[in-house]
């Protein structure tokens, strides 16, 4: 890790892409503690408003140059970034695991997502297609083309401290935009590491200073991006509460926002399900990243005839979970991000008990030698009812709710009957059920899967959800259009001036 980072115990200042400039700050230092062992691993200067303004000015100047670089050339630079992340996959993945708390396999998988989106963006750089259209006027040609937006602000969350940044940045860069990244104040070190990794590529290719910028801090820094008319697009990942505040601020200046917010994801388990497939998918979806994914499986809606069988299988599977240091690959579940998350877990458990919920797998804290950080909890399963307020909310902890259903329409109504609409799944070998779930009568989520879980989306598909999830789409498919502006062009190559709609105007 030391090969890609400044000394971790010295306060580090954020800045722009090549590492040549770091801005001075007089604000309180951000201390990053590992939830794995409670150790202080980084001290980072948060950006002041003056720092922020200098970063935006540098980014604006860089955009004026970067937009003129041919898109395939921009793609080539992103390709080189992908090679750099391949080179540092083990180091960065280990750092992600240690600073955030997800297992090492998940940390390495997150870096692989960066590599994959780099590969995708390289191809995309030669496919930023427009359209040719037929004009109603003689000797006229109509076409549609796309231009870069300008400065793209990226606000990322702690649970995917580097991957979600890359989903936005790599696509934005091939589109000709420049990026200003505000990572979570809980995971600043991984963000600094990414800047270090790509800095060499940017310098070697004479990329203008400011194409990739970093600011650090808490809510204030995010508000600066949201309210700044110099920032063309704000892409924000986090809670629905945060997203509503960002959306209101950006809309107030008629800017653009791309929101990836909360999830309350369900798996329907049909009587026709292959339970040997379903159980591992449910368990990984519920406990992966200690329940701190937006795509975490939070509810399972089980057909009444197999409800007891599924419950017993899950109880047995949960007894096999090993909880411990995320850097030890023998463990399935690491810690929550901090002690506040542990308090949220305890509050949710108490509310479930108050509502009359019964725990199929009991909750609890994990304490003792090796768990000194105080951030380890036991994944649990509760029998509940879909309408309960605690079930309707997204609690970012490993609590799974079991809900019975009678008919498929009942199951789909329960699945859709929450404010969020990110990911969903059904396990069934019945073709009619599968198609019904995917039809307009089925899932209302942005992601709907058959015979796989809610967690673990691939780069090639557009990622995002509906309702309180925000409606944004990142990563694959045609998500690149969010980072560009559309322009319609009409060219008159004739000798007369006919008007559209047959209007006559004579002088």
Automatic annotation (TrEMBL):
EC number(s) reported in the record: 1.2.1.3
Active-site residue numbers: 260
Region described as Disordered: spans on this chain: 1-20
Protein name, UniProt field: aldehyde dehydrogenase (NAD(+))
Entries under PANTHER family matching the protein: ALPHA-AMINOADIPIC SEMIALDEHYDE DEHYDROGENASE (PTHR43521)
Pfam families: Aldedh
One example GO MF annotation: aldehyde dehydrogenase (NAD+) activity
Family: Belongs to the aldehyde dehydrogenase family.
InterPro entries on file: Ald_DH/histidinol_DH (IPR016161), Ald_DH_C (IPR016163), Ald_DH_CS_GLU (IPR029510), Ald_DH_N (IPR016162), Aldehyde_DH_dom (IPR015590), ALDH7A1-like (IPR044638)
């Amino acid at each position: 890790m030391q090969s890609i980072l400044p000394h971790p115990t010295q306060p580090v200042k954020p800045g722009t892409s090549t590492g040549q400039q770091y801005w001075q700050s007089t604000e309180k230092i951000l201390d990053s503690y590992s939830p794995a062992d409670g150790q202080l691993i980084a001290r980072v200067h948060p950006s002041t408003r003056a720092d922020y303004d200098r970063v935006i000015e540098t980014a604006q100047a860089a955009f004026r140059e970067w937009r003129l670089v041919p898109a395939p050339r921009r793609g080539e630079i992103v390709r080189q970034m992908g090679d750099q992340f391949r080179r540092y996959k083990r180091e960065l993945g280990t750092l992600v695991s240690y600073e955030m708390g997800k297992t090492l396999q998940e940390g390495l998988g997150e870096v692989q997502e960066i590599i994959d989106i780099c590969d995708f963006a390289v191809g995309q750089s030669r496919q930023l297609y427009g359209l040719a259209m037929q004009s109603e006027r003689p000797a006229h040609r109509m076409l549609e083309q796309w231009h870069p937006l300008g400065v793209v602000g990226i606000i990322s969350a702690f649970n995917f401290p580097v991957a979600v940044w890359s989903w936005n940045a790599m696509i934005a860069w091939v589109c000709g935009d420049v990026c200003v990244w505000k990572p979570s104040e809980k995971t600043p070190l991984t963000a600094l590491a990414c800047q270090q990794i790509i800095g060499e590529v940017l310098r070697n290719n004479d990329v203008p200073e400011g194409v990739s910028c970093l600011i650090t801090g808490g809510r204030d820094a995010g508000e600066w991006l949201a309210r700044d008319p110099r920032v063309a697009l704000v892409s924000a990942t986090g809670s629905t509460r945060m997203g509503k505040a960002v959306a209101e601020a950006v809309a107030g200046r008629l800017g653009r926002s791309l929101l990836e917010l909360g999830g309350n994801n369900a798996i329907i388990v049909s009587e026709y399900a292959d339970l040997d497939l379903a159980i591992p998918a449910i368990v990984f979806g519920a406990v992966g990243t200690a329940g701190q994914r937006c795509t975490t499986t939070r509810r399972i809606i089980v057909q009444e005839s197999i409800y007891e069988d599924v419950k017993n299988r899950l109880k047995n599977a949960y007894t096999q979970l090993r909880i411990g240091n995320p850097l030890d690959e023998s463990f399935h579940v690491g810690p929550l991000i901090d002690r506040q998350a542990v308090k949220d877990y305890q509050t949710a458990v108490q509310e479930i008990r108050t509502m009359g919920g019964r725990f199929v797998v009991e909750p609890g804290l994990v304490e003792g030698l090796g768990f000194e950080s105080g951030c380890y909890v036991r994944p649990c399963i509760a029998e509940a009812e879909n309408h309960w307020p605690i079930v309707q909310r997204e609690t970012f902890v490993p609590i799974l709710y079991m809900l019975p259903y009678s008919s498929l329409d009942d199951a789909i109504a329960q699945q859709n009957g929450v404010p969020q609409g990110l990911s969903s799944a059904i396990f069934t070998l019945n073709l009619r059920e599968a198609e019904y779930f995917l039809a307009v009568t089925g899932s209302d989520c942005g992601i709907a899967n058959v015979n796989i879980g809610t967690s673990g989306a691939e780069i090639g598909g557009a990622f995002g959800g509906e309702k309180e999830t925000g409606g944004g789409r990142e990563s694959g498919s045609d998500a690149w259009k969010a980072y560009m502006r559309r322009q319609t062009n009409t060219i008159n190559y004739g000798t007369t001036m006919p008007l559209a709609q047959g209007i006559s105007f004579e002088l």
